[in-house]
Amino acid sequence: MKVLVVNCGSSSVKYALFSMTHEKKIACGLVECIGLPEAYFKRQSVGQEEEKTLCKVSNHFEAVELIISHLLDPEKGSIKNVDEIYAIGHRIVHGGDKFSDSVLVDENVKAGLKECFSIAPLHTPHHYAGIEAVEKMLPGIPSILVFDTAFHQTMPDYAYMYAVPYEYYKRDHVRRYGMHGTSHKYVMQRAAAMLGKNPEDINLITCHLGNGSSITAIKNGKVIDTSMGFTPLAGLVMGTRCGDIDPAVLVHIMAENPKITSDEMNDLLNKESGLRGISGLSGDMRTIVKAIQAGNKRAKLAFDMLCYSAKKYICMYYGVLNGIDGIAFTAGIGENVPSVREKACENLQNLNIELDIEKNNTPGQDERFISADGSKVKIMVIPTNEELMIAREAMKVLADH
Ligand code: ADP
Asked: Which of 235, 226, 114 is nearest to 177 (CA)?
């Protein structure tokens, strides 16, 4: 039984094909720079070399067409017939408050997704184009939408509301939604398995630290708060995003620089801030770590700020949850940078959070415990797998139908 996972971005389509019997990825790749002369198609099937070729694709439909025809290629493909694909799982960035779980696509669902265009205009229309392309290319094969926001829909109103006039919530849907939900959910399920508990019995803080970062408070397997907000800009200091700041800073910057447009302000906060903005070097943690080793003070400041923001969220959610079973680190930084984990958990012995420095510093690719033996709160590194989670969700939705 095979599930195709599709992720349509603004100018790219990524895909992964899973054989669900053993949950193995058998092919993956992406079409990048759609509509541009430098468009290319990168793909890899299990046991074969990665290939990359320039291609001519003017829209998402053509990209999906290219991917399907490659999957069917008699020599280098992974399937003989499209009927081998049991379901298609689509990654959807924003489901607003319309979608609190993964759903099977029908006309109603498509209409609901269209209503989410305004809330994530850079992503949702492309997801929609991808869904329509797949429907035309693979008629009769069920499509399932898996939302980055869905796992966070269990937050109580006092956690998701912003204290601005209520009409902005009613009219403009302004509230906290949270992101990375598919990753947080996957990590929560794996953490429960590692701790030998049912997900419904677990109290956990999940730390997804990548280019974009978010931390989530999970009570009895359900999200009760998360650090990202109306958009991914809120919360931690990130690669190029500022995270939480006093909103009056924006008003001040705009008053002092009257020529700045809202698009420029958006870029400043999303693309020029965070590690990049503070260090003046890069939003990439690898560059920051190297610069710190070379004695760069601003890189060190950026690093310290990121770690401190993670620590603050951990402590805040520890309190909100009234104690936890574990903390799980995931994503590029969470999985690979021991010094960030160390700083984020530093001096928290009073909260029964204690890292084993040696375990933390031992490199690894697998799920592992990094807490000290006596630490009541178990600290874990859990490599995320959003694609597999989407494939699992697609299977689950069909099984429940
Ligand atoms: P995205 O949010 O784009 O999915 P990732 O989860 O891939 O991001 O995380 C990217 C971040 O992780 C970058 O800052 C990168 O430098 C960092 N990172 C990834 N691998 C390593 C590593 N081995 N050592 C240090 N930093 C790493």
From this structure: 226
CA dist., res. 37 & res. 29, Å (int): 19
- Compute the distance between CA of residue 144 and CA of residue 40 in angstroms, rounded to an integer: 27
Residues 6+ apart with CB under 8 A from 262: none
Query: Which atom of ligand 1 lies nearest, measured to the CA of 275?
Result: 14
Note the pLDDT tens digit of each residue in 329-351. 999 999 999 999 999 999 999 99
Reported as a single tens digit per residue, the pLDDT across 172-186 is 999 999 999 999 999
The CATH number of the structural domain formed by 198-386 is 3.30.420.40
Q: How many CB atoms lie within 10 A of CB 109?
A: 17
Assigned CATH topology for domain 2-147: Nucleotidyltransferase; domain 5 (3.30.420)
> Does the Cβ of 332 fall within 6 Å of ligand 1?
yes
Ligand 1 contact, 24 CB (< 6 A): no
For residue 283, the CA-to-ligand 1 centroid distance in Å is: 10
Ligand 1 pocket, residue 336 CB under 6 Å:
yes
> What is this structure's pTM?
0.95
CA of 260 to the centre of ligand 1 (A): 31
User: Please, where in the chain does CATH 3.30.420.40 lie?
Assistant: 2-147, 198-386
Active-site residue set: 148
| Per-residue buried b or exposed e for 323-348, using 16+ beta carbons within 10 Å of the residue's own CB | ebbbbbbbbbbbbbbbebbebbbeeb
